[in-house]
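Give me structure tokens for this 135-residue protein.
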Amino acid sequence: MAHLNGTWKLDRSEGIDELAKFMELSEEHTKMFKEMKHTFEIVKVGNGFDCKVTYSETMVKEHKIPLNEEFDINNDITGEKIKSIARLENNKLVVKPVVEKPKSIFSTDEVIDGQFVVTMTTPSGVVCKQYFNRV
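Here you go.
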């Protein structure tokens, strides 16, 4: 999974309004979510990944994502702590909540045509994609 390794800068997003509505974000949070041009660093370490998301100089979030075991991850937008499990499936990093709830979000990270693509999907079929270019 070395092809995921690297630092990636957000290029564009699709489906933000729909995901924000699904998450019941305020207008202010939706605007912030849409205007973010964050960087995403991912490094394969042992049996998992270390991730660092830099939203601004003062807002940096770090996540350790072990493979094939339960772990807690914080939703960077809502602050909610979610018990999740991550697996590698067909060259993709797939993170799913252990217990699916109506407001659950599944994420898939993969490289497509040289771009790092994060796809966030809900049980109701809302899809948001973020496309990142390697820095």
